[in-house]
UniProtKB/TrEMBL annotation:
A molecular function GO annotation: electron transfer activity
Listed transmembrane segments: 49-67, 79-100, 181-201, 248-269, 290-312, 332-351
Pfam families: Ni_hydr_CYTB, Oxidored_molyb
Keyword Translocase assigned: no
Transport found in the keyword field: no
Organism ancestry: Bacteria, Pseudomonadati, Pseudomonadota, Betaproteobacteria, Burkholderiales
Oxidoreductase molybdopterin-binding domain span: 416-553
Protein name according to UniProt: Molybdopterin-binding oxidoreductase
One annotated GO biological process: respiratory electron transport chain
Domain Cytochrome b561 bacterial/Ni-hydrogenase: 97-323
Gene Ontology terms: cellular component: plasma membrane
Location (main, coarse): membrane
Signal peptide start and end residues: none
């Protein structure tokens, strides 16, 4: 059978889409904006975290004085003899530091450097941390941005801050799209390295280094701490076994901090969080984000302490073990360490400029490498809804507001002249008025909004289910995607738009919302119509919808990446994590 209706008419807004550069052009980007020195909230007061430095110094000096005093106490001396720092039952590792372990140690430090840098860049896109899901300004416990200004619209994008290019990747403000590709793809490599490490650890005797096998490690760790702090370092047997303080610290890093980071990373995803029911509600995105950050603090503390101790407890011998795999005092370990550090330094130095220059390439490679994570989120069926009680007192606004006479006129007469066009590959193209849309079946849902930048908020949304509109317009068999065109432009000119799979449009929680929290949707949040699609990040939910066009392919729209942010800010077409 052939279809003999005329070829689909493209929606007129299509011609308003803009092309986008394949690299970051700074004069087309958000202008830089400095943050403030990180602050922590203690009660009502904001405290500069740099106070931690003199505080740590004073505590360290006091710790040394106390530890030296303790060593004069006979009972402590007896304790130190009884618990020298390594349990008597600790079994020696006979295989030294094999090549796989040394290589994996290096890869781990190499990957971590870039994961941390990209992670900080992601944090700089919403430089505040909260415990509650609603992200109400003033309730954050940590921030490196000033208080949210009152008396004006302050969007999440306005809130983002610049990082130095040597610290973040790529450093410039609101570059979360690119930073996420780095964070996710290097994390994938880091996880593969980690899984191989776990396997090799437990199929050889190397696990004995890291896993405590007796409670005696507790008093022995206390003993080691007193010995280090009193500046009389414990006898070193690292070639064979670690002291208990080392063992516990390494154990926490490898078996607690790393898995915690991975889990809390995934828990920030709308598709995963919404899929997990009560777990996703109890460990809401902001808790996950805060714990993810605390795990980072552990890693930073660990790196500082570990590297310091490597260097002050016999650098040459220590570097020989972990880099050259030999037990002795020659220079081979130092040489290999220096070569490894040169590699880290050169790649560190290149990462940000490369990312700006080859942004589209970074997006493509990132999308390829992040595909396994993306696939994890494909079996979602997010049906997680919340209760009235969970509705956020504050809901961050975001995006580029409409600025056209056409839009102003629509607002003036209460959208009486608004028409939603639905066209493209459909059997029955439609133009629906605001009143007609409201007369259709209505669905309400209380759900969490997950902005890619990191904030979240809960609202009750009311509107027309997309599946009902599909029944009305009847997409043809060729239609694979729904394109949502906005009445508003994007930040860099050209119309804002985004593309969704048809399957996603049939989901029970996908609606065109005209109500928010029981009231008509405000212009700020997308009036007359905005999409709600609960397994996706916020940027996919087009506000101020002008038209929906069904298409077979989206490569000929805009820059062909599947949406405005995908084209201009190098986001992923579908990465609901
Ligand atoms: N037309 C248009 N729609 C848009 C945007 C935009 O810039 N333009 N921003 C998106 C982003 S990034 C988010 S997080 C949500 C924000 O919705 P809210 O203002 O209701 O919080 O809208 C999305 N829809
Ligand atoms: Mo967003």
């Amino acid at each position: 059978m052939t279809h003999n209706h005329p070829g689909p008419k493209h929606d007129p807004v299509r011609s308003q889409l803009s092309h986008a550069d394949d690299r970051v052009r700074l004069n087309h980007w958000l202008p830089p904006q400095e943050g403030v020195v990180p602050q922590m909230r203690i009660g009502e007061r904001w405290v500069n975290v740099l106070w931690a430095l003199p505080l740590a110094f004073v505590l360290l000096v006091m710790g040394v004085a106390i530890a030296q005093g303790l060593r004069q106490v006979p009972a402590v001396q007896v304790f130190l003899v009884r618990y020298p720092g390594i349990p008597l039952s600790a079994v020696a590792v006979n295989t030294g530091f094999p090549a796989w372990l040394r290589l994996q140690h290096f890869l781990n430090l190499f990957f971590m450097a870039f994961i941390i840098r990209a992670g900080l860049q992601i944090l700089a896109d919403h430089p505040r941390l909260y415990w509650k899901r609603d992200c109400t300004p003033g309730t954050e416990w940590f921030r490196f941005q000033k208080a949210v200004p009152a008396g004006r619209v302050w969007t999440a994008k306005d809130d983002s801050v610049t990082l130095p290019a040597w610290l973040g990747i790529p450093g410039i403000r609101h570059s979360i799209g690119l930073a996420r590709w780095w964070h996710f793809s290097i994390t994938l490599l880091w996880m593969i390295n980690g899984i191989i490490f776990y396997i090799l650890l437990f199929t050889t005797d190397q696990w004995l280094r890291l896993v405590p096998t007796t409670w005696e490690v507790i008093p022995n760790a206390a003993s080691t701490a007193v010995q280090y702090l009193s500046l009389t370092f414990p006898a070193d047997q690292s070639w064979l076994r670690y002291n208990s303080l080392q063992q516990i610290t390494y154990f926490i890093t490898v078996f607690v901090a790393a898995p915690t980071s991975i889990l809390t990373g995934f828990m920030q995803s709308p598709a995963i969080s919404n899929r997990l029911g009560w777990i996703g509600r109890a460990f809401n995105r902001q808790r996950a984000r805060s714990i993810h950050f605390i795990a980072l603090c552990w890693f930073l503390f660990y790196i500082l302490a570990h590297v310091t101790l490597v260097f002050i407890t016999g650098a040459r011998v220590n570097l020989n073990m972990m880099f050259a795999g030999v037990n002795g005092g020659n220079w081979s370990g130092v040489l290999m360490f220096v070569m490894a550090m040169v590699l880290v330094a050169v790649t560190w130095w290149l990462a940000s400029p490369f990312t700006l220059r080859h942004a589209r390439r970074v997006q493509q490679i990132g999308a390829f490498l992040a595909r396994p994570f993306n696939n994890v989120t494909q079996w979602w069926d997010p049906t997680s809804q919340l209760t009235e009680h969970d509705i956020s007192p504050y809901f961050w606004p975001n995006g580029t507001m409409p600025a056209s006479d056409e839009f102003d006129r629509l607002v003036e007469d209460g959208f009486a002249h608004y028409r939603l066009r639905i066209d493209g590959l459909v059997e029955k193209p439609a133009e629906l008025s605001y009143a007609e849309l409201k007369a259709m079946p209505k669905q309400e849902q209380i759900t969490t909004h997950f902005c890619i930048q990191g904030w979240s908020g809960v609202a009750r949304w009311g509107g027309v289910p997309m599946r009902h509109l599909l029944d009305v317009v009847k997409p043809t068999v060729d239609a694979r995607y729904a394109v949502f065109y906005s009445l508003a432009d994007g930040a860099d000119g050209g119309r804002y738009y985004d593309v969704h799979s048809i399957a996603n449009m049939r989901h029970e929680l996908t609606i065109l919302a005209y109500e928010m929290n029981g009231a008509p949707l405000s212009v700020l949040h997308g009036a007359p119509l905005r999409l709600r699609c609960e397994n996706e990040l916020g940027f996919k939910m087009v506000k101020w919808i002008a038209a929906i066009e069904f298409v077979h392919d989206f490569s000929d729209l805009g820059a062909g990446q599947g949406g405005y942010n995908e084209d201009h800010e190098f986001y992923g077409y579908r990465v609901p994590i």
